[in-house]
Amino acid sequence: MSEAPWSRSEFEARLRAKGAGYHIHHPFNVMLNSGRASAAQIRGWVANRFYYQISIPIKDAAILSNCDDRTVRREWIRRIHDHDGDGDDAGGIEAWLRLADAVGLERARTESLEDLLPGVRFAVDAYVNFARRAPWPEAVCASLTEMFAPQIHRQRLAGWPEHYPWIEREGLRYFQNRVSQASRDVEFALATTLARFTTRTAQERALEVLQFKLDVLWQMNDALQHRYGVPS
Ligand code: AHQ
């Protein structure tokens, strides 16, 4: 006899408790956001995170292709526009290239992916392939690491201008845009997850899926730390 499902508030609390393993706590990110990163470490991070950014719309398109619910598709397609741009809005990938430019990375070098580390590529590809194969509600659930993202973006916006005055402020626009976009994304993804994972077994699976995505983000930082180090 399977155990009774958690209430919605208990289920949400358990999802949010997973924030303890969010990459804001990874030594490489702590170094970045506490002002102890060198220009080379920042450039390495920006160049590698570019692969994550260009993979997000492909991940979201995979979710759309698996999703049979028009209401969900109408909402989810906005995420592709957020990254690829729409009309006059050049989009998040363009804003990330602006960040790359601001930290001294040539656009062509960033887009060539020549600095992409195997560990970052494999982690990001694992996320995209998960979204291609998993039931679409699981891929929606995986995006819930963004419950913790506004804090990490605000940390960058608050600290980088002081820590890294050599980075042109305009380069930080990506983080500014994500604070509101992440909050909007999470509102829908959390409501969908709470509504769709209704048995105890399904709720336990949702926690496993969220842990997988936390591991993707953590592994990206592990690869960066291995290649670029962190001050002892
Ligand atoms: O810039 C980020 C972004 O566009 C997304 C989409 C979302 C997803 O669908 O999984 N997750 C995500 C994240 C972005 N930035 C990360 C960061 O640290 O700057 C955080 C990351 C996330 O928390 O999943």
Mean pLDDT score, rounded? 97
Main sheet makeup? none
CATH architecture: Up-down Bundle
The CATH class assignment is: Mainly Alpha
Structural category is mainly alpha
Kindly summarize this structure in a few lines.
This protein has 232 residues and is mostly helical. Helix content is 72%, strand content 0%.
Task: Describe it.
This protein is mainly alpha-helical and 232 residues long. The chain has one domain (8-228): Heme oxygenase-like (Heme Oxygenase, Chain A, Up-down Bundle), CATH 1.20.910.10. The chain has helices at residues 8-17, 27-33, 39-66, 70-84, 92-102, 107-112, 118-133, 136-142, 149-163, 173-196, 200-228. Helix 3 (39-66) packs antiparallel against helix 5 and helix 9 packs antiparallel against helix 10 (173-196). The radius of gyration is 18 Å and the shape is globular. It starts with 7 loop residues before the first helix and ends with a helix. 35% of the residues are buried. The model has no long low-confidence stretch (mean pLDDT 97). Ligand AHQ binds at residues 56, 143, 145-146, 149, 152, 178.
What are the SSEs and their pairings?
Blueprint: H1 8-17, H2 27-33, H3 39-66, H4 70-84, H5 92-102, H6 107-112, H7 118-133, H8 136-142, H9 149-163, H10 173-196, H11 200-228
Residues 56, 143, 145-146, 149, 152, 178 line the site of ligand AHQ.
